[in-house]
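During the second half of the funding period, the structural biology subgroup turned its attention to how the target accommodates small molecules. The most pressing case was C2E, which had performed well in the primary screen but for which no bound structure existed. We therefore specified the complex as follows and requested a full 3D prediction, including the ligand pose.
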Amino acid sequence: RAKDIGRNSFQLFTPAMNAHSQERSLIQSHLRLALVHNELELNYQAQINGVTGKVMGVEALLRWYNPILGQVSPAQFIPMAEELGFITEIDHWVLEQACKQRNLWLDQGLDCGRIAVNISALHFHQGNLVASVESVLAQSQLPAELLEIEVTEGCFIKQMDKATDILGQLKNMGVKVALDDFGTGFSSLSYLTSLPIDTLKIDASFIAKLPHNFRESQITSAIITLAQNLNLDIVAEGVETDAQKIFLIERGCVIMQGYLYNKPVCAKTLPKIIQDA
Ligand code: C2E
Ligand code: MG
Ligand code: MG
Ligand code: MG
């Protein structure tokens, strides 16, 4: 153990750390090739109006299956893609696939509302999101109103002018913007007054504690009131139980995304979920 080695000496590498970093570099080496090897796929999760049952939108969620590593969670590989400098490439691929798929469903008459696509904060600041969205919409023929970009509070910690400009341009194109994982970031709330945001998504960590935990219940209620007063749409993420659904509806949040309704599914399965909704 490090403390047994004595003062002024550091043990830089423990066997556990070594295994961990070896696993990381293994994953990273495969991640570099995931796109060209066709290992990425999108899943889709419906957002449901809990009162009417209507499907309001669908979120595209990235999946990576590698023959050696198996299924790797986006919570693990998205941060790696950011570090390795190809998150912009991955997000652009997701945007392309999602818009193409949504336009196909439009042609088939499948009524599933907007398609929501997650954009990493790194991509938001380093890439050219506006140009990327423009070219993908032109290429896919998808009406801009059917696209929603999901960003996180991390996009607004620095370079507020640039962020305002990017969101303004998206708005002018007719694209909607949702603020994902709302309430978990460390940014100030003042950006809500200056940025053209359409939707707040209450983070699943709050929803998980409803309705019995006092603090999370209070915070959730306050977020709903805030959204209503600012005239923003509101979506609850990670709704798993009827009790959570009832709590949310009573307080005025009717759109929900979660296992209570459906899990993310592949493009082939989604139409069945929409028709059964
Ligand atoms: P997110 O955007 O907040 O997505 C919601 C996550 O909650 C998804 O996890 C979804 O599968 C999961 N979820 C939905 N309903 C429930 C529920 O009822 N209970 C529980 N426990 N979980 C639920 P997933 O697909 O593993 O994605 C994790 C995160 O990875 C996403 O969080 C998003 O931040 C990121 N991500 C996923 N796809 C992309 C992508 O294409 N680009 C970028 N930049 N990030 C992505
Ligand atoms: Mg999201
Ligand atoms: Mg989220
Ligand atoms: Mg997230």
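Two results from this model are relevant to the next phase. The two ends are 56 Å apart (CA to CA). The chain is about 45% helix and 20% strand.
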